[in-house]
Amino acid sequence: MTLNQRFSPLFLVLSGLFGFAGVALAAASAHLDGDGRFLASASAMLIAHAPALLALALAGERLRTAWLAGLLMGVGTLLFAGDLVALRFAGAGLFPMAAPTGGFAMMFGWLAIAAGAFLRNRAR
């Protein structure tokens, strides 16, 4: 079993949860009193990365770096969105530099997809 096959179920679960949470946070940012910019930013990242993780889970065998891209995007999105939601509702982030760390992880996840274009899959 390849790394892509091992991580595919995780990416499917994260995709569904990110999509759900992204829509919920978009609604919350529109309807809650106060500044909704943290929730709107978290929602945007969740909604942007949910379909990316879905694509990596479904087509990962065609991209050698799908497992790495998915892990970076998944962890990065959790850190970024989690930190912003914690800031809004708890008044403090997850830990210092959680959102920037998550942001960099997401960016490197996208670079892992690009790098995968240059790495050929081995013949099956």
What does this structure look like?
It holds the Pfam family DUF423. Keywords: Membrane, Signal, Transmembrane, Transmembrane helix. InterPro entries: DUF423 (IPR006696). The chain has 124 residues and is mainly α. The chain has one domain. It has four helices and no strands. It starts with a helix and ends in an 8-residue tail after the last helix.
Short characterization:
With 124 residues, the protein is an all-alpha fold. The chain has one domain (3-116).
What is the first-to-last residue Cα distance? 12 Å
Please report the total strand number as a whole number.
0
Task: Supply the helix-strand structural class.
Answer: mainly alpha
Let me know the average pLDDT.
93
Q: Percent of residues in helical segments?
A: over 70%
Number of helices: 4
What pattern of helices and strands is seen along the backbone? HHHH
Instruction: Tell me the major beta sheet.
Output: none
- Number of domain modules: 1
What is the 3D form?
A: elongated
Low-confidence spans: pLDDT under 50, at least 5 residues? none
Give me the Rg, rounded.
Answer: 15 Å
How large a portion of the residues is in β-strands, by DSSP E? under 5%
